[in-house]
Design goal:
190 residues; mainly alpha; 76% helix; elongated
Amino acid sequence: MSETTRAVRSDAARTVRTILEAAERVLSKNPAASMEQIAEAAGVARTTVHRRFASREALVHAMAAWATRQFAEAVESAHPEDTPPLVALYQVTASVLRVKSTWGFAMSRALSDDPEVARVHADVEERCDRLFRRTQAAGVLRAEVDPGWVRRVYYALIHEAAQSRDAGPEALATRVVDTLLRGVGTGQGL
């Protein structure tokens, strides 16, 4: 591949990312915003947006796919299989909350019938279950608690934390993990 071809592809990728990021900002504030408003926020011509995305639906689908990839990368970046379980739980939580706070509109549009989205979410679900089994083996979570139940509660806590705008991802992650552990942890209970 020539240097010119690489530069053109790199520029095209930057343009697409700029459009996706602008679309997230605009659509988060106004889900009915036009492609023209998105183009304006991205600092590109409307024709550039239409050249990259044939329709508004195609743009939203691309946003959901992008956000899903970011979500998977966030989980991977925390190294949940290699890091001590409690540290991994916090790191995964903070990383996911960063994505959800940045890509909330797109994450809410990720269609479960999209095979790639379904695959990513199934992989993340499996990794979460393994992480919760590791936390049980380490004595952080009670042994009798079903990891599938812990995951569902954890997902609900993350969802609620992502809706909150009163703190950053790190503080929210601390809140989520603290709430989870006090609810199903080995500490003094009811």
